[in-house]
């Protein structure tokens, strides 16, 4: 099965009220592991790359890995560029083959954000790609992007004007969520999702999904959150499973790099499977 356009993955999720895991990967091992997990539970999957990962590995190298891993895959998968304020990086990824991008221009005035987003949508359409839009900061710093300062909330009227003018395929409002590890239980604005979706039916993206409760996930998804982002949890699975194995290596003085990779891959694969089951996407592919 070839790579599936993001709107085709999210349309049934939005209509039937299940969430699709959108997992940020950082190397070949993590990409392979989450894809394997999604295949095992027959879930659609959105694989996300940060700007930092694209710059570190190189867009062509990263996309070559993606093509190799998904060439014969039998579930719907999409490759998404997460939080990117850099138009040059967006251009590079679209020209290389990414199927969707998040143009993150929340630091600009809404009018300028909207004007540039219209340009990015037009550019993406020429490549058969989709665009996620954002006009409010998601609290927290991830991969060097973001801020810990609370975001200014825009009114529903402002949000609707932006959605109508830009035609973005996915919308990421601030909902009380945050990137990174939560220091305390977040208070999510469920009604905000319902208000946006009722006025302008568009799949909502929930950022900062790592650390939310199953009940919070399910309530958000029931209201129209079709794309659920997971990043920190995957990093924890990778690092903590590796740390535990390295402690065993130190105790026994036996060092097996391949076994280390197996342990980390299993932890990340299981995380992807757990997320698909929690979000209701398992068995949908």
UniProtKB/TrEMBL annotation:
InterPro entries: Aldolase_TIM, Class_II_FBP_aldolase, FBA_II. Dihydroxyacetone phosphate binds at residues 180, 208-210, 229-232. Keywords: Metal-binding, Zinc. The keyword Acyltransferase does not apply. Zn(2+) 2 binds at residues 104, 134. Zn(2+) 1 binds at residues 83, 179, 207. GO terms for biological process: carbohydrate metabolic process. Signal peptide: none annotated. The active site is at residue 82. Binds 2 Zn(2+) ions per subunit. One is catalytic and the other provides a structural contribution. GO terms for molecular function: aldehyde-lyase activity; zinc ion binding. Its cofactor is Zn(2+). It holds the Pfam family F_bP_aldolase. The keyword Metal-binding applies. PANTHER family: D-TAGATOSE-1,6-BISPHOSPHATE ALDOLASE (PTHR30304), D-TAGATOSE-1,6-BISPHOSPHATE ALDOLASE SUBUNIT GATY-RELATED (PTHR30304:SF0). This is Class II fructose-bisphosphate aldolase. It comes from Tessaracoccus rhinocerotis.
């Amino acid at each position: 099965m070839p790579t599936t356009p993001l709107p085709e993955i999210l349309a049934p999720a939005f209509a039937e009220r299940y969430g699709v895991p959108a997992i940020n990967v950082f190397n070949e091992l993590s990409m392979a592991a989450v894809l394997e997990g999604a295949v095992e539970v027959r879930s659609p999957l959105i694989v996300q790359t940060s700007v930092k990962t694209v710059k570190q590995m190189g867009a062509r190298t990263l996309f070559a890995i993606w093509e190799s891993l998904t060439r014969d895959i039998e579930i719907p998968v999409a490759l998404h560029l997460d939080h990117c304020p850099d138009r040059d990086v967006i251009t590079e990824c679209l020209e290389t083959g990414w199927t969707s991008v998040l143009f993150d221009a929340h630091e600009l005035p809404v009018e300028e954000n909207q004007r540039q987003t219209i340009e990015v949508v037009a550019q993406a359409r020429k490549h058969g790609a989709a665009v996620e839009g954002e006009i409010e900061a998601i609290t927290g710093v991830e991969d060097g992007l973001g801020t810990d300062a609370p975001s200014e909330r825009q009114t529903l009227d402002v949000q609707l004007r932006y959605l109508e003018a830009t035609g973005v395929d996915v919308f990421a409002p601030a909902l009380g969520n945050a990137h990174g590890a939560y220091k305390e239980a977040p208070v999510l604005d469920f009604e905000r999702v319902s208000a946006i979706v009722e006025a302008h039916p568009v799949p909502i993206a929930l950022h900062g999904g790592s650390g939310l409760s199953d009940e919070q996930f399910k309530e958000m998804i029931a209201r129209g959150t079709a794309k659920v982002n997971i990043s920190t949890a995957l990093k924890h699975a990778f690092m903590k499973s590796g740390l535990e194995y390295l402690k065993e290596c130190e105790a026994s003085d036996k060092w097996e790099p391949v076994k280390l990779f197996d342990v980390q891959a299993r932890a990340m694969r299981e995380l992807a499977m757990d997320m698909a089951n929690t979000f209701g996407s398992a068995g949908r592919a």
